[in-house]
Design goal:
338 residues, four-stranded mixed beta sheet, five-stranded antiparallel beta sheet, binds uridine-diphosphate-2(N-acetylglucosaminyl) butyric acid
Length: 338
């Protein structure tokens, strides 16, 4: 285990922000993670996975641990289902493609989400009507203070919309080292109800889709709407879609009857932040090298040399503007690394 100094983090965050870590260490096994966490000369430690859901706002005066533990293992199997244990450093989309090549179903709607498998449970990643929790069995995590391993069941993870135990009580206390999924081997349950998927399958004239067809449709939709981080730095949705009470929703909807919305329960409604931001006039706007994507206003982009502070400032301007216009306070979905 080698500790490097003044390491550029540009290639470790999908925003492509140029910032330095005072100390940096690549972690390839649970033993290395345990050793690194015991480095008492570096009391401040920050964990990086795929770097796809964070904004680094300044140089990091700490030891950055880059979790790069690889490996996929079949832990159990029946005629109908397979359980896979996937180590935290596996790239999410490569893993999804691997499951599709084996004809394992369940993850196809979440194709092309950037990031690594180990960080996927933290925000319960989701897309096109499916969330990670739908196929999740358990995860293993190391307790940072004691280096003891703990297994978290689905219930213990307390998953919610872009939310989990690891973003709340567990925040800063655990590092996820592997995730176990249960996938179907046949009679796959397809989830094509999401409008954009139906439309894409129709466009391609596919009437009886396979899980591979759904993955291809999702990839095609995402490529049209979302920028490729290897070409234009970004962190996917920068904001969460706000969830408001029925009362708040009714008064909002009276004034904005064309707004899209999702009813979550009798009393809760979700309003797409992308719509709110677009209506405030930010879609496609550029301020220096920081900007709002032209096809999806939820996504902030780095045109090259934007600093984390500049992107953060733009996000704050957007939050204020949406609040002034709609009386709704949107919140960042990405982790702000300060
Ligand atoms: N909309 C606008 N303007 C925009 C963007 C969206 O008016 O600039 C409207 C759309 O027309 C649509 C509605 O907002 O009526 C919802 O848009 P979309 O279906 O694109 O989804 P989203 O709510 O913006 C969420 C996730 C995405 C995920 C998609 C598809 C969040 C914060 N984001 O976006 O996740 O891919 O649904 O399921 O929940 C990510 O987390 O990085 C991410 C991309």
């Amino acid at each position: 285990m080698e500790i490097q100094q003044n390491k550029s983090l540009k290639k470790y965050n999908t925003f492509g922000i140029e910032a330095k870590a005072k100390y940096f260490c690549e972690i390839r096994s649970i033993d290395e993670l345990s050793q690194a966490l015991q480095q008492s000369q570096h009391p401040n430690k920050i964990c990086f996975g795929g770097g796809s859901n964070m904004l680094i706002t300044q140089d990091i005066d700490a030891l950055v641990l880059h979790i790069n533990i690889k490996g996929i293992e079949i832990v159990s199997e029946t005629k109908e289902r397979v359980q896979l244990k996937v180590n935290a450093g596996e790239n999410w989309h490569q893993f999804v493609l691997w499951t599709l090549a084996q004809d394992y179903g369940g993850l196809e709607n979440m194709s092309l989400i950037p990031g690594n498998t180990g960080t996927a449970p933290i925000q319960n990643i989701g897309a096109y009507g499916v969330e990670l929790k739908d196929t999740f069995v358990s995860c293993e995590a190391m307790h940072i203070a004691t280096q003891k391993m703990r297994t978290f069941s689905k219930e213990a993870c307390e998953f919610g919309y872009r939310d989990s135990y690891f973003k709340n009580e567990g925040k800063g206390n655990f590092i996820i080292t592997s995730v176990t999924f249960s996938l179907s081997k046949n009679k796959h349950t397809l989830n094509t109800s999401y409008g954009a998927i139906e439309a894409e399958l129709e466009k391609q004239n596919i009437k009886d889709p396979t899980i591979q067809d759904i993955s291809k449709a999702v990839i095609s939709i995402r490529k049209q709407k979302l920028p490729d981080p290897s070409k234009l730095g970004n962190s996917g949705s920068f904001f969460k879609n706000p969830v408001v009470s029925k009362q708040q929703f009714i008064s909002f909807y009276e004034k904005h009857p064309t707004a899209p919305f999702y009813k979550i329960s009798e009393d809760l409604y979700k309003i797409p932040a992308g719509w709110l931001i677009e209506k405030c006039g930010f879609k496609g706007k550029r301020f220096g090298d920081a900007g709002v994507h032209k096809n999806q206003a939820l996504v902030l982009v780095n045109y090259g040399t934007a600093t984390g502070a500049e992107i953060l400032k733009l996000s704050q301007t957007i939050i204020e503007s949406v609040n002034d216009k709609f009386g709704i306070r949107i919140l960042p979905e990405v982790n702000l690394i300060k």
